[in-house]
Automatic annotation (TrEMBL):
SMART domains: AAA. This is ABC transporter ATP-binding protein. It comes from Cryobacterium ruanii. Residues 4-289 form the ABC transporter domain. Keywords: ATP-binding, Cell membrane, Ion transport, Iron, Iron transport, Membrane, Nucleotide-binding, Transport. GO terms for cellular component: ATP-binding cassette (ABC) transporter complex. CDD domains: ABC_Carb_Solutes_like.
């Protein structure tokens, strides 16, 4: 059983079905990426889990609690979930600290944020005394009262631990690297800083499930790469169970513990990043998560005859995928679709014992490596991923090999 279990879920807008019989099990403490093209139902899935959309069928269980099912539709705020949207969506009239603490309980007995300048805050020594409205109005006059620096609060996965609201804000501000910015307005933050505040705000109530809706899509590529790595590390350090929606293949494969690939409102494959990339259930999934080399071939006793010669191959028919590759292969002579990854191809000098296999016809340079196009006998073109130091020149003639088993699929899959 997963910490989050979605069983047979359906969502429709009027007569149009958007999600159809979606089932998913998310292990506790894992980061799962939902990957798919625009319009496939990723955000609808996230909103349905959050309780922002009604479902037409199925159940959703989180931590053993039924939150959606026949006759049950818990309100979003009672589901124990945190939400990180694509555009941060901070409250412009609140400071960074107030945004982080927005979802925390507010009581005079336990909330240090209600302490006014000069009052004694229980437990945290007036740590955030300047975050009340009255304090903001008197910030200049009482500046000397608000010079206590932020001190890192101990981080622990113990969700039952009870801390004051101000101490929790201090803990999270330090955790996301914004300890010196708690008094700033959102308009004074960079895009990456604003997204950190959004993450801290979602983490503040210690949710049972974190939902992240393409949170890095609006950032520039360099910042996006750095921030997503930091966020994934932070979520794991906090032992959070998280569901990340993205259409970025690199993001999903590099960050997630498990990847769910969606198309047309259905989950086509769920597995580890390596499983999804190296053993895709069909050529469409293979092409969506990475570059492919696809050839026509004929199955012959565990091998495929194709434009690259006779290659050892794994049968990837529907039954084989469902049974872990143990199902019987097709009869010899069956036409199949052969699939390889460009990095599975190897280059060598032309053999003196046989005709040269291929001629280099184009190079798509990417700095660290390149996709190199080769033309085989008969005009067939294939692409290999080659490290930059080993790049051939256009016109060079080489022999091509394959470093691991090809994947064979039924025609029409």
């Amino acid at each position: 059983m997963g910490w989050v279990t979605i069983q047979g879920m359906g969502v429709a807008y009027g007569d149009s079905r958007v999600l159809d019989d979606v089932s998913l099990r998310i292990p506790r403490g894992s980061l799962v990426a939902v990957l798919g093209p625009s319009g496939c139902g990723k955000t609808t899935l996230l909103r349905a889990i959050a309780g922002l959309l009604p479902v037409t069928a199925g159940t959703i269980t989180v931590g053993g609690r039924l939150v959606t099912g026949p006759g049950v539709q818990r309100a979003p705020e009672k589901r124990g979930m945190g939400w990180v949207p694509q555009d941060a969506s901070l409250f412009p009239h609140l400071t960074v600290g107030e945004n982080i603490g927005f979802g925390l309980p507010r009581t005079r007995q336990s909330d240090d944020l209600y302490c006014e300048p000069g009052e004694t805050a229980g437990g945290v020594g007036g740590l955030f005394a300047g975050l009340t409205r009255r304090a903001r109005a008197n910030r200049t006059r009482h500046a000397s009262l608000h010079t206590t620096p932020l001190a890192p609060a101990p981080i622990t996965p113990d969700r039952s631990r009870r801390t004051s609201r101000a101490a929790r804000i201090a803990e999270l501000a330090t955790l996301v690297g914004l300890a010196e910015l708690v008094d700033r307005a959102p308009s004074q933050l960079s895009g990456g800083q604003a997204q950190r505040v959004s993450l801290a705000r979602a983490l503040a109530p210690r949710p049972d499930l974190m939902l992240l809706d393409e949170p890095f899509a609006a950032l520039d590529p360099l910042l996006r790469s750095a921030l997503r790595t930091e966020v994934a590390a932070l979520l794991r350090s906090q032992h959070n169970t998280s569901l990340l929606v993205t259409h970025d293949q690199e993001e999903a494969l590099s960050l997630a513990d498990f990847v769910a690939v969606m198309r047309g409102g259905e989950i086509l494959q769920f597995g580890s990043p390596a499983d999804v990339y190296e053993r895709p259930v069909d050529p469409w999934v293979a092409g969506f998560v990475g570059d492919t080399v696809e050839l026509d071939g004929v199955w012959q006793g565990g091998r495929v005859a194709c434009g690259l010669g006779s290659l050892p191959a794994d049968w990837m028919g529907a039954r084989a995928v469902n049974d872990g590759g143990a199902a019987s292969a097709p009869a010899d002579g069956t036409s199949v679709r052969v699939l390889l990854r460009p990095e599975w191809l190897t280059l060598s000098a032309p053999s003196t014992e046989r005709q040269t296999d291929a001629a280099t016809t184009a190079i798509a340079y990417a700095g660290h490596d390149a996709l190199v196009s080769f033309t085989l006998a008969g005009g067939l073109v294939v692409r290999a991923r080659v490290a930059a130091p080993d790049l051939p020149r256009v016109g060079d003639r080489l022999s091509l090999g394959v470093r691991q088993n090809a994947l064979a699929y039924p025609l029409g899959s």
